[in-house]
Amino acid sequence: xxxxxxxxxxxxENEKITINLGFVDLGRxxxxxxxxxxxxxxxxxxxxxxxxxxxxxxxxxRSIERHTMELGLRDFGRAExxxxxxxxxxxxxxxxxxxxIASDVTPDLALATIGSITVLGSLQASADIKKALADRxx
Length: 138
Fold this sequence. Notes:
Arc/MetJ-type ribon-helix-helix transcriptional regulator
């Protein structure tokens, strides 16, 4: 029998945001798309954001270092949290990017091992984990 894959279980690799633009700015973007400078509005906006992030790259790096944050994707699994609990240690999660708490982590284990969560980007965890840690998520 063939293996069945559920595509809805796959987590998105990016986050959707909504912005408000004035009609003139939107028209100027559409003109650049029409003229072939960008493939679509989203391409223009992503390019503009990346240019701004590059322009402020040193300030972002200094801030990440100053706040002792991790940059990128950070997964927290059951085994890691159980090791922390056994050692009597509390984890303070600080991530710029995506932090994921594995589906096999129980709310009790999370409460016993996670002291605080600061994520600039996105936190992916079960609804039960988010509810249990609600007062620790900043």
